Amino acid sequence: MKTTANFLDDLRAKLDLPSDGRLAAYLGIHRQYMSKYRTLGHTFDDTMSMKIADILGIEQTYVVACMHHQRAKQPAEKKLWERMAMQMTGIAATVLVALALPAQDANAVTFTNVQDTNTLYYVKLLPVTLLLYFIGLHKKRFIPRIPN
Fold first, then answer.
1. Does the pLDDT at position 30 exceed 70?
2. How far apart are CA 140 and CA 133, in angstroms?
3. Which domains does the chain show, CATH number per domain?
């Protein structure tokens, strides 16, 4: 699991900033916060975690989970946040792979034993379908319910 200091180092490298003072100015925070992050073990709040994730181009939920993991006191709580961070990165990787799949050409997919031979069948929205499927698996409230 990454720590606050790891994310600060990643930010400085990505933004090519020579000092924590410049990084603080870039983030719009006081230099004293940088010192607290580096030496006192303070962590980013959720809003700052999301901002840092956006700058680094990584999953927001991963940075938030890492910060909660760093703040956790009990081993069971730390394990929970570690599992959540790994699940979020796994879901993000799966979605990225699905979105990177090339769209299939309508002529490339054919079916045998189809009654109507003039009909073409193809999957055009495979990445969107996979995305909705994974959201539905991990966030049940997004699955639409059909009223009885």
1. yes
2. 10
3. 1-82 (1.10.260), 101-148 (no CATH)
Share of the chain above pLDDT 70, in %: 59
Q: What's the chain's average pLDDT?
A: 75
13 by Cβ neighbours in 10 Å (0-12 / 13-18 / 19+) ranks as: exposed
Give the CA distances from residue 71 to residues 10, 42, 107, 133, in Å, rounded to whole numbers and listed in that order. Answer: 20, 8, 54, 32
Asked whether residue 44 carries a pLDDT value surpassing 60, the answer given is yes
Tokens of 146: 């059909």
Report the pLDDT value the prediction gives residue 129, as an integer from 0 to 100. Answer: 56
How far apart CA 59 and CA 108 sit, in angstroms, is 34
